[in-house]
Design goal:
The protein is α/β, with parallel strands linked by helices and 330 residues long. It is 38% helix and 18% strand. The chain folds into two domains: 2-100, no CATH class; 128-324, Rossmann fold, CATH 3.40.50.300. The chain has helices at 11-22, 69-79, 84-93, 102-113, 138-151, 168-178, 189-198, 217-228, 244-255, 274-283, 305-312, 317-321, and strands spanning 2-8, 27-34, 38-45, 128-131, 156-160, 183-185, 204-208, 233-239, 261-265, 286-291, 300-302. The chain starts with a strand and ends in a 9-residue tail after the last helix.
Length: 330
């Protein structure tokens, strides 16, 4: 008996796929429905019945206990809580892709649907300003980027515009003191332009920003004033584990201000990455890096299709560390 899983937005569409692929003799083994995600139907057909598009018995299906990589990918995407339409697009992208393991197949699906642009580790012509809602982990991520540059001996400039939040400057100042970096603080866009001129010799200039409410036009206008003060690239920072719809709406708001990359924090504290993928897809953002540790000196991972697929796999290294992590997370 051969088993195959089908994913669709509705039960009716899933059953139609079952009949089209396996025929009328298929037996429904299991169904699973989750609001906002879709339906997964697992069906079976006797080995003696030829199935169009399915391999013959003498290939990878000769072992009834061997998992089908495509079915494994379907399960992984379902578990991460992706919306049904995005889930289906990823699966459609690998319909004709032959892979012997689920991780390779998942990486191929991610590569076909998403863009990956890790933050540069060397010289970059534009200052990078980390933007996002309050509590997303921008300050700690700036510290991680500073540590990454310092460990490679690359000069980096650090500026903070987060002069409103209690302790915002103090937290970043503590990190920069350890790294023996000069931290400049500015309160308005004109001062930011002057500070960027001072830091012109650095290979990279990193700018921490105050958390902005993406649903407050006043907050967004204030952030826009800082961004237009100089030629700055805003990088959106969002934590993992959010509601996918909420994350998408936030991502679109910051995309309108010029953000083109999404950096995701707190992967060590989230079991589902659907919000990250949905936000990137809906807002048209490139996935850049991910924070997988609360420690400033480590845990910033450049994302690629392969590295993201590895993080999404059951039993990944990040999953195993989650229960061990404590402290301030980003």
């Amino acid at each position: 008996m051969r088993l195959k899983s089908f994913h669709a937005p509705t039960m009716g569409e899933a059953m139609r796929l079952v009949r089209e692929v396996l025929g009328d003799d298929a037996i429904i083994v299991a169904t699973r429905e989750e609001e906002g995600v879709g339906v997964r139907v697992t069906a079976a057909v006797e080995e003696s019945i030829p199935v169009p598009g399915m391999p013959a018995i003498n290939d990878r299906y000769h072992n009834p206990l061997a998992p089908d990589p495509a079915d494994q990918v379907t399960d992984i995407l379902f578990r991460h809580g992706l919306p049904a339409d995005l889930n289906q697009r990823l699966m459609d992208s690998i319909a004709d892709f032959d892979a012997k393991d689920a991780q390779t197949l998942l990486a191929a699906a991610l590569e076909s649907v998403f863009t990956f642009q890790p933050l540069p580790e060397g010289r970059f012509p534009k200052p990078l300003m980390l933007v996002g809602p309050p509590g997303a982990g921008k300050t700690l991520t700036v510290a991680k980027l500073c540590a990454r540059a310092a460990l490679k001996g690359r000069p980096v400039g650090v500026i903070s515009t987060d002069t409103v939040r209690a302790g915002g400057i103090d937290q970043l100042a503590a990190f920069t003191r350890v790294l023996k970096l000069r931290l400049m603080t500015v309160e308005d866009p004109l001062a930011l332009a002057d500070a960027l001129d001072v830091q012109r010799g650095a290979e990279q200039v990193l700018v921490d920003s105050a958390g902005r409410n993406p649903y407050s036009q006043a907050d967004l206008n204030d952030l826009r004033d800082f961004l237009v003060a100089a030629d700055i690239e805003p990088v959106l920072v969002l934590p993992a584990g959010m509601d996918p719809v909420e994350a998408s709406e936030m991502a679109r708001a910051f995309r309108a201000l010029g953000a083109r990359r999404l950096l995701t924090t707190r992967l060590d504290m989230a079991r589902r990455l659907g919000s990250m993928l949905t936000a990137a897809h809906e807002a048209g953002l490139a996935l850049c890096d991910a924070s997988t540790s609360p420690r400033a000196a480590e845990g910033l991972t450049p994302l690629s299709p392969t590295s993201l697929a590895r993080l999404m796999m059951p039993g990944s290294e990040t999953s195993e560390r989650r229960a061990k992590q404590t402290g301030t997370h980003a």
